[in-house]
Write a structure and sequence with these properties.
heterodimer; A: 2 domains; six-stranded mixed beta sheet; four-stranded antiparallel beta sheet; 11 helices; 10 strands; globular; disordered N terminus; B: mainly alpha; two-stranded antiparallel sheet
Chain lengths: 259, 306
């Protein structure tokens, strides 16, 4: 996360680019809740160093895909590969240890732990090795958290909880960061801040980001590439710019919104 | 006055043992929301393990220092009982995780019946006595009727052990990464897994810690009463569970506080009113406290901003 670690990450990036192997690859994934099918055979890739966004309406299956990548719920069919390894059947906690982090739907802050302890939990996989350094870093990104370090997670406002969820995900120094609706319920000014931070993480630290959003305009402007999901299927894909200009996307997700 | 002080000492001793057992109930309930009804029998089992090894060490191996023998017995009982705790979770509870809520509860009752019957068959149905281990007492003062108010060494050992262990485990849960992982699993198991916490292992460890503390309680129980029987798991188990609820289930200091309160009510009621109704008194106080403080004395209120 610091300047010192960005160099090895960049060299890694060029190695991956040479082999053209995506960092995360989802193939034909089907996920069920009981007998109800939620993902109907999803294919998508996230390449190293990219920001990829997934947009879609409520209930399309975006968050289910996020959680399926982590094996909870588990994909009933299809494969998920991360950095060349098949992680489809790997236990959730082992997947987290491959330096994938998620800021999940509903934020899932530990309500009876302090902000500080929540951040310590985020650094669990590397045993708090770079904790002080990373704490300082996330406090610079989110000064509001710094004032609230000894406060319990459950007493934070919605926006502060969102910041904490993202900060906690960053504490593990992830190579791939999964963000589920980071803008949900936040004031426009804070949304803007969060998107700026995502961009910085990507450009300065070479962090790969997979972003689920309902705020399609902001997400597509930020992302290199995007996918559109409708009731468990990927229906469209392309660069952020292409999707922004696509008439279907405009009609379904943008008209009447920003711009 | 003399009787009061003596009963205070006796009550705190009994309460310490309840408190140690109650920690096992409270931690398991905290992490998987299940009442481990077999915990009282795990406690009874550990008292038998302590009894057997105490006899082996003193009669067969001829260790004459009681303190040394007790220390070795304590360690052995903790290790073996932990293994039992681990195995019970593995066999009877883990396969039922994700099943309907009552399934592990019924399974726990089954384990409880199994353990008491197992001990009955293996050790016999009669009370098993040990020779008194520690007899020394300190006479604090002489009362009006020539009644000596005494604090026995074994009571000191029991109270001190409880205090030390509570401090250690409180530190463990509040300050170490294991304790943090435990609390995280308590609050949101799914999120804990997303952060790389091995939830199954954390739950196993909780059972192991609970069983180890039950083993300490079992050894101290044997030290205090010098006798144990196969059905000694039930009543102390229920009392300790009551203590956990009274103190606020999920809270470690609450469990010990609840244990001390139950122990004190019991001894004072026996001394001043009637010994037959001591359990009625203890459970009545529980009911009254819960009416006014539904989450127990140190329990957290249910309301939470999400």
């Amino acid at each position: 996360m610091s300047a010192g670690t960005s160099n090895p990450m960049q060299s890694h990036q060029s190695a991956a680019a040479a082999t053209h192997q995506p960092l995360l690859s989802v193939r034909g994934v089907k996920t069920y809740y009981g007998n109800i099918i939620a993902l109907k055979g999803v294919d998508m890739d996230v390449n190293e160093g990219e920001i990829v966004t997934l947009i879609g309406a409520n209930g399309a299956g975006k968050s289910t895909l996020m959680m399926t990548i982590f094996g909870n719920p588990r994909a009933r069919e299809g494969t998920i590969t991360y950095a060349g390894r098949d992680i489809t059947k790997m236990p959730t906690h082992d997947i987290a240890r491959l330096s994938i982090a998620q800021s999940p739907e509903g934020r899932r802050i530990f309500p009876r732990m302090t902000v500080f302890e929540n951040l310590q939990m985020g650094a669990s996989i590397n045993g708090l090795a770079h904790f002080d350094q990373d704490l300082e870093r996330v406090c610079t990104l989110f000064p509001r958290l710094k004032e609230r370090l000894q406060q319990r997670g459950g007493t934070l406002s919605g926006g502060e909880q969102q910041m904490l969820a993202i900060a906690r995900a960053l504490m593990s120094r992830p190579k791939l960061l999964l963000l589920d609706e980071p803008s949900l319920g936040l004031a426009p000014l804070i949304v803007k801040q969060i998107f700026t931070i995502i961009k910085e993480l990507n450009e300065k630290d070479g962090m790969t980001v997979f972003l689920v959003e309902q705020n399609a305009y902001h997400a597509l402007k930020l992302a290199h590439r995007g996918y559109v999901m409708v009731t468990g299927n990927i229906t469209l894909s392309g660069t952020g710019k292409e999707l922004l200009e696509n008439p279907q996307v405009r009609a379904a997700y943008l008209e009447g919104g920003h711009h | 006055m003399d009787i009061f002080v003596q009963q205070l000492i006796n009550g705190l001793t009994l309460g310490s043992i309840y408190g140690l057992i109650a920690i096992g109930y409270t931690m398991v309930f905290g992490i998987i929301g299940m009442v481990n009804f077999a915990h009282g029998d795990v406690f009874m089992l550990s008292a038998f393990i302590a009894l057997i090894f105490f006899l082996i060490l003193t009669t067969w191996l001829g260790i004459s220092s009681v303190a040394l023998a007790l220390l070795i017995v304590l360690v052995i009982a903790m290790v073996l009982t932990s293994l039992w705790g681990w195995a019970i979770e593995r066999i009877a509870y883990r396969p039922l995780r994700g099943s309907f809520r009552l399934a592990p509860l019924i399974s726990a009752i089954g384990v409880s019946i199994f353990l008491s019957n197992f001990v009955q068959v293996a050790q016999g149905a009669r009370n098993k006595p040990t020779p008194p281990m520690i007899r020394d007492v300190i006479v604090l003062f002489q009362g009006e009727n020539g009644y000596n108010v005494a604090l026995s060494y074994k009571q000191i050992i029991i109270m001190a052990t409880t205090a030390v262990l509570l401090t250690i485990f409180w530190y463990l849960v509040q300050k170490t990464s294991l304790g943090r992982a435990q609390r995280a699993c308590e609050q949101d198991r799914k999120m804990a897994a997303l952060l790389g916490i091995n939830v199954d292992r954390t739950i196993s460890l909780t059972f192991v810690i609970g069983a180890a503390l039950a083993a300490v309680a079992g050894t101290l129980y044997l030290l205090n009463y010098g006798v144990v029987s196969f059905n000694d798991g039930f009543v102390p188990g229920v009392k300790a569970f009551t203590a956990a609820v009274l103190g606020g289930i999920g809270s470690l200091p609450g469990a010990v506080l609840g244990g001390l309160i139950i122990g004190l009510i019991e001894t004072f009621w026996s001394a001043y009113f009637s010994i037959e109704y001591k359990d009625v008194a203890a459970f009545s106080i529980l009911a009254i406290v819960l009416i006014f403080m539904p989450s127990g004395i140190l329990g957290r209120p249910e309301v939470e901003k999400v």
